[in-house]
Amino acid sequence: MIKFQIRLILSLIILILVVLLAFILLVGEKEYPYKGIWWILTISLGIVLILIILLGIKIKTNYSKPIAAAASVAMELAKGNYWARTAVDEMDEMGILNSSINILARNLQEMVKAQEMQQDRLSVLIENIGAGLILIDSKGYINLINKGYKKIFNVDPNDYLNHLYYEVIEHQDVGKLIEEIFITEQNVSKQMLLPLSIERRYFDVYGVPIIGTNNVWKGVLLVFHDITDIKKLENMRKDFVANVSHELKTPVTSIKGFSETLLDGAMNDGKALKEFLTIILKESDRLQTLINDLLELSKIEKQDFKLNICKFDILQILKDVMTLLSNNASEKNIDLQLNCAEDHVVVEADLHRIKQVFINLIGNAISYTPKDGHVIVAVQETENSVQISVKDTGIGIEKHEIPRIFERFYRVDRDRSRESGGTGLGLAIVKHIVEAHQGNIRVKSELGKGSEFIIKLKKC
Ligand code: ADP
User: Fold this and answer.
1) pLDDT tens profile 224-263
2) CA of 150 to the centre of ligand 1 (A)
3) CATH for 233-301, among 1.10.530.10, 1.10.287.130, 3.20.20.80, 3.40.50.2300?
4) Cβ–ligand 1 contact at 412 (below 6 Å)
5) Residue nearest to atom 23 of ligand 1 (CA)
6) 432: CA distance to ligand 1 center in Å?
């Protein structure tokens, strides 16, 4: 507006000057004798014009430019560029204004830096807290999950963030707990046993309602502490003695009973003597297998357990295991096959332990497959790993039992396992060995149709 007014005044003065000059030059001396006065007027007006222009230039350099510079810095600050600064030439009014803007920018920059640092600290803390964390907003949408949560539940953040919790959280117990907090607005702490892929893990779940200032309801925060190891240790101590005693009791009772019967006179009957001694031998074999498996498991579970790593052809090992178990398969007319596109697949692992894994898996596949079934061992090589699957057309395992079969002494059908000479420790040993190789084991199974145990090992 001011600029427009100045321009208007200048234009008026120039117009008057032009009119005056034209008047002086066009009108003759005779017609107008006071031309000198008009010259003086014109020159004075010219001087005024020059003075106004000079004054304008001074105002522009002294005020307009610094104001424009200050305005542009203010705009940059508004955009979030806190590095913007303006030049301060003199400490007049404009200098003070610009220097204040610079101080403001510096303070904003420091505040943002402090806030970023705080934010970084908070995210580092949230991400590395060592527990799973999930934040749900007041409408039930998931706002945040940390690294721990992703690892525990093996979830993709894209499937979780900004989704309603009850649509994506699979575990009913967790859903119920969140609901309880939403309803009661109270802190809740619960221990939960959650099935995760091939195992069940214990969690201490702590949930808090987040209530902001003025009692504004902001959502729910859940923290999952994995207490499986502590719980396992606690349960193990309780269960182990009971389980071992129970497992030992049957063969020992049997051996004792038959020996007593023999001593009571049955030994004089040749047929009974042979029959009972065979049972005693079978039961002592069972005892021996059980004790061997127990010793094996305790060896593998020890802290200083070391693998004897070497390079070998896994196909050869699988062929050896299949030869070893071929009698068991042919007794039930089970077709035992090995499928692989390659002639050799070299892995770097502990040969003895890997053999033990496949004796267990192929042995189980034969044991839990009825007559005339099929057991197919397939080996697939990928860029970084080797995948070996043992697939059978056997009795299958119910989905909810899958995480449990890797526990010590757990059997889906106790009598059937015993009948096949199982100890219930085989898969616990398998899991330990595979994990010691930094590999992983998965199970796909359908009741009545068959099971597939898939092992992934690192390639050498
Ligand atoms: P076991 O000595 O009883 O075979 P494992 O630890 O090897 O013990 O297996 C645990 C349980 O898992 C078995 O008792 C059985 O119920 C189940 N299982 C293992 N492998 C299979 C399979 N291939 N098909 C069906 N059930 C299986």
Assistant:
1) 999 988 887 887 777 778 888 888 888 899 999 999 999 9
2) 30
3) 1.10.287.130
4) yes
5) 365
6) 16
